[in-house]
Specification:
The protein is α+β, with helices and mostly antiparallel strands and 118 residues long. The strands form two sheets. It has a four-stranded antiparallel sheet with strand order 2-5-1-6. Strands 3-4 form a two-stranded antiparallel ribbon. It has a single domain, classed as Dimeric alpha+beta barrel (Alpha-Beta Plaits), CATH 3.30.70. The model has no long low-confidence stretch (mean pLDDT 92).
């Protein structure tokens, strides 16, 4: 089963990190991604640019609205994701627990629902 690990964290914390702290965080994510690749579960993943670069699009009644920023104003922002291919939800949760983002924010685990299953 494929799952997406959505990593939420407080962007303000990253802006105040020292260079050494940022390097340490990057190294921990690289090691995590390498461990997932070595285990054969890593399908892909990326970090996301800050929410200040985001736009939200909504179409209601044929009228489209484009708004600056994310859909919701929250204390934690979606900062990145990994897509993994694992045997079951327990395995996905095990990988989520090891994600560096779980120590500084939250990691939401969502099974992917293939379009072919409609």
């Amino acid at each position: 089963m494929q799952c997406i690990l959505l990593i939420y964290t407080n962007e303000d914390a990253y802006r105040t990190m020292t260079q050494a702290q940022a390097s340490e965080m990057t190294a921990s994510y690289m090691a995590y991604a390498e461990a997932m690749s070595a285990a054969g579960v890593n399908v892909g993943g990326q970090r996301l640019r800050p929410v200040s670069t985001a736009a939200t699009v909504r179409t209601t009644g044929g009228k489209t609205q484009v708004l600056d920023g994310p859909y919701a104003d929250t204390k934690e922002q979606l900062g990145g994701y990994f897509i993994i291919d694992v045997p079951d939800m327990d395995a996905a949760l095990s990988w989520a627990q090891r994600c560096p983002g779980a120590a500084t924010g939250v990691v939401e685990v969502r099974p992917i629902w293939p379009m072919s299953e409609y």
